[in-house]
Sequence to fold (461 residues):
Amino acid sequence: MNEKENNKMDKIVSLCKRRGFVFQGSEIYGGLRGTWDLGPLGVALNNNLKREWWKMFVDGREDMYGLDASILMNGKVWDASGHTGAGFCDPLVEDTETGERYRADHLLKDAGHEADGLSLEEIDAIIVDNKIVSPNGNPLSPARQFNLMFESRIGATAGDEGRVYLRPETAQGIFVNFKNVVDTGRVKVPFGIAQVGKAFRNEITPRNFIFRSREFEQMEIEYFIPPDEDIWERYHREWIDTRKDWFASIGLTAEHLGEEVHPRDKLAHYARACTDITFKFPFGEQELEGIAARGNYDLIQHQEASGKPLEFFDEGRKEKYVPHVIEPSLGVDRTFLAVVCAAYTKDEIDGEQRTVLKLHPRVAPVKAGVFPLMKNKPELMEKARSLYEKLRRRWNVFFDVSGAIGRRYRRMDEIGTPFGITVDFDSLDDGTVTLRDRDTTKQQRVSEEELISIMEEQIGW
Ligand code: ATP
Fold:
């Protein structure tokens, strides 16, 4: 990361804290690494992202069904999915002097080596041959596998029955409910099940702010398709394109995004293909979402381990099969960070520097600021207050009387509020207000009806 980008990331982190988007978890106790708390504006932005996603992919489609499965699941789920085994481990190395732990593949990548899919022996050989040391300059221990699941126990249950994990992904909750959804809806393949919820991974090195943390949220879909060999590629591509359209609708347009196709020889044995949609973060272009074609591996695993058939009877084809699946898997927190990074802008207005978050109105945490021109004029206050109350019934809007109007605009710019509404003396005569555009700072006079229709159109609800 060059200095400018580094600086940009520091500024974003500090803005997020100062304006109440994101705080360090357990901050007054010195924090808990890899955890973050969302403040008043952060939770509003986060909820907007999840709502936009749900509206587009569940409410907006006939072929999708929502689900909210438990975070705690029977331990056997994770045996069947492969998560308790080597399949869900990252290679760990220790600084032999300080005991600090690092992800070996990240250290290799930082030193310019290919690091995906290597065995522990191969990792050790690269470390030795290239004299790779820890970030503190000390020798590294041999690599070992480190499982990323947090394990716990159900209090009153002894033995293996009491073994539980905090789920490391929401996807398995979907697979184990496949039959329930099929049996209770009038479901026809192809169809998808969507879920939003918390996931936990004991990441060895949480880093880059909320990009990689130990507790995060996912928005996942399992899209079930017929098992024919010649169709999955089309569905896979369709999902990549559909997701890019959705990203554009929340302000992450093509210039911010990339695609990274996982090479076939690095895929898990059951996977057909995996394409990451990447985002150009200030710390580099990194995975935002993974879109995998997983064959029927997961359903077959659960069918075998549970002894319960997880087949679908296809009325049209008059046959039973275990469907294959396309899995678009997106982190809410990464989307949050991408949206804020894409929106973060410094520009100059009338010779004065300002920081503005050019957030899409759909996701902006506060939609409008309502400002009476002066606070010591009761008729202005009353008119502005009544407009504020009216807008507040539909949207998160903010009422601000303190300071010069320019300063009030700047405070709203910094948190990405798209509409600035000023009530002045003309408003008392003809009911119009001044509507200021956050990005261009252009102002126009509009009636209340015009104001609401402009807001509706841009916010989309
Ligand atoms: P990596 O290889 O970077 O550890 P992964 O490829 O294992 O991650 P997936 O299992 O594909 O990640 O997870 C799906 C999505 O969940 C990711 O694209 C990301 O948006 C999100 N995600 C995964 N791990 C984390 C994390 N530790 N913190 C925040 N988001 C995460």
Observations:
- The longest helix spans residues 40-59.
- The chain has a mean pLDDT of 95.
